Automatic annotation (TrEMBL):
It comes from Leptolinea tardivitalis. It is found in: Cytoplasm. It comes from the Bacteria. Modulates RecA activity. The keyword tRNA-binding does not apply. InterPro entries: RecX_HTH_1st, RecX_HTH_2nd, RecX_HTH_3rd, Regulatory_RecX, WH-like_DNA-bd_sf. The gene is recX. Residues 152-197 form the RecX third three-helical domain. One of its GO terms (cellular component) is cytoplasm. Belongs to the RecX family. Gene3D superfamilies: Winged helix-like DNA-binding domain superfamily/Winged helix DNA-binding domain (1.10.10.10). This is Regulatory protein RecX. Residues 60-99 form the RecX first three-helical domain.
């Protein structure tokens, strides 16, 4: 039975451990995975196979954590990225379960946070918000829960306010043209866009009169 003759921390990745069997390098694993190993231990092929599988699981989990450290992601986004990296379902499924049990992935929370951030910083129509969440793999029920309280007219007015400073000195025809294009590109329909433009223009006129 092969015997562990040396354990060395990798030079370029101190989180991984090189394992030597019978005097020769055999394989590397995450230090967390190999923490129980000791020089002199005998290790049979079945244990080696189990160790390598555990290492694959840990590497996939750490890859998922790095993705989540960049920004929150849905379960679909994480599983897709792991699949793209070459991991199969036997690795992806337990990794996803571990992430969900730890509360690191929650599509319902993601959907509500996404909608809240969009409405605060980059408002757009409910239709576009639904489409964006669909593209991220969020379930219909969770999407509807996140957008059910949104008011399309209010969203259009918020969106117009984000843009109004760029065209506030224009005559009405030019203002309307610019604002119409801006709101339409963000998914609002003709009636909602028209109402938002007229309302925003009226607010601007009141503010201008107040300043004079």
């Amino acid at each position: 039975m092969p015997q562990i003759t040396d354990l060395k921390i990798q030079k370029h990745n101190p989180n991984r451990l090189n394992i030597y069997l019978d005097g020769e390098f055999a394989f590397g694993v995450e230090r967390l995975v190999g923490a129980w190993l000791s020089i002199g231990d005998e290790i049979d092929p079945a244990k080696i196979e189990a160790l390598l599988r555990k290492d694959e699981l840990e590497k996939a989990y750490l890859r998922a954590l790095r993705l989540l450290n960049i920004r929150p992601r849905t379960a679909f986004e994480i599983s897709s990225r792991l699949a793209k990296a070459g991991y199969g379902e036997k690795i992806i499924e337990p990794v996803m379960a571990r992430l969900q049990e730890a509360g690191l992935i929650n599509d319902q929370v993601f959907a509500h946070t996404w909608v809240e951030n969009r409405c605060t910083f980059r408002p757009r129509s409910k239709r576009v918000l639904v489409l964006e969440l669909h593209q991220k793999g969020v379930a219909d029920s969770e999407i509807q829960s996140a957008v059910c309280d949104l008011d399309e007219t209010s969203l259009a007015l918020q969106t117009a306010q984000k843009y109004v400073s760029r065209c506030k000195d224009m005559p009405f025809d030019e203002f309307r043209k610019k604002m119409f294009g801006y709101l339409s590109r963000r998914g609002f329909n003709f009636e909602t866009v028209t109402e938002a433009i007229n309302h925003t223009w009226q607010i601007m006129q009141v503010e201008a009169e107040t300043l004079t």
